[in-house]
User: Fold these one by one.
Assistant:
Number 1:
Amino acid sequence: MSELIEGYLGKQADTKKSRLPALWDKLQSLTGLILACFILCHMVFTSTILLGKDAFNAIVGFAEAKFLFGDGAWWITNLVAAAIFVVFITHAFLAMRKFPANYRQYKMFKGHKNRIKHLDTTLWWLQFLTGFALFFAGSAHLVDIVFGGHISAETSAARFHTLEIFYLALLVFMVVHASIGMYRLYVKWMSIDGVNKAQMQEKRNRARSIVLGVYGVLAVIALIADFVWIGLK
């Protein structure tokens, strides 16, 4: 009964304010941070194809701990993908709490965004749209990796060659969503205090430029790598 009261009223049975929203917010931030860092590593990983098939397969071998288990440990990367999928789904459902719940809320937010023309609000809107797309595209990709067996340059090239538009779109969705998310995490959890409003705004702008710049550079490299993947037979 106490959980029912808390869910409806946002207060505990003793009328104290519920701590659940704060807990969910922290968990959403944590899962988002894990996924954003994973995307950085993933872009670096797939971009090793620019150094050749042997370099990519060597990285796969290291990830599969072949130096300990030999060639039979391909399932390690599948388990990692399964763990990331759990984090991904958890993050998605936590993030859905902040999505417009109906058409009226959507229209209110759209009107608010168009009136104030605030950059951070527009970035949140892009994050919302790419997050919605990623729920389907990212899930499909992760499920494919979990049940796809051994990863190698040859199998990866076959995937890229078959679904080239899908992987190019997935890269764009991931980079936009993760980069905005990392910037918003910084603003939300790190101090941006200053002696005045201008100094605080300067810190925000610097943080945004650094985060978007890092993801942007890696995205360009990963995009070039994607075209290399598509060209492999």
Number 2:
Amino acid sequence: MSQGGTAEVVVQATQLNKEYLRGQQRVIALKNVDFIAHKGQFIALMGPSGSGKSTLLHLIAAMDRPTSGQLSVLGEDPFGFSERQLARWRNAHVGFIFQAFNLIPVLSALENVELPLKLTRLSPRQRREHAMTALDLVGLSDRMDHVPRQLSGGQEQRVAIARAIVTDPDLLLADEPTGNLDAQSAAEVLTLLQRLHKEFHKTVLLVTHDPDAAAFASSMHHLSKGHMD
């Protein structure tokens, strides 16, 4: 908490717009979106497919650029960085969890989790220790030598979460993280995100169209056709 009793602003979007060209057609993904996330919040971004929620998450992660408007993330304008600076900033401060897991098939769970640490100055031994700690946190210390095809979908997503948290980022962004999972695995993943929020005070933004998944968050915002309520 900052002085004056108000939580630190982690994400602030002001009149954010994003347009794409699809062939000759202009597609408006986000329209004049205002959004604030404070440190330690667990926010669900809800809406149907095509509502703009994943676009917003990608902008916050600086994986895409807005057409217009302002976006501050952790007090920085990420779009003012060079590509190299941006990669290091993102690696240090933002953990991204994808629906499709995005694990490297030929690497073990431990090696997949270690990947973000290759951009740090940690020694190989330190990288391994950090990765083992992250895998233990997600309940997979007994699977660290398994490659993705030897894991269930739920286990793969937990490896992906371990990879997202191994650098101890300030912000966790989860884009439909349960979209490819059965109900039990989905509940385990969402419980894990909730634990990271409550016990480790992580700021979590969860994109979902599932009300059951959104119920794990402490607050919700809805998007529809690029507009936020």
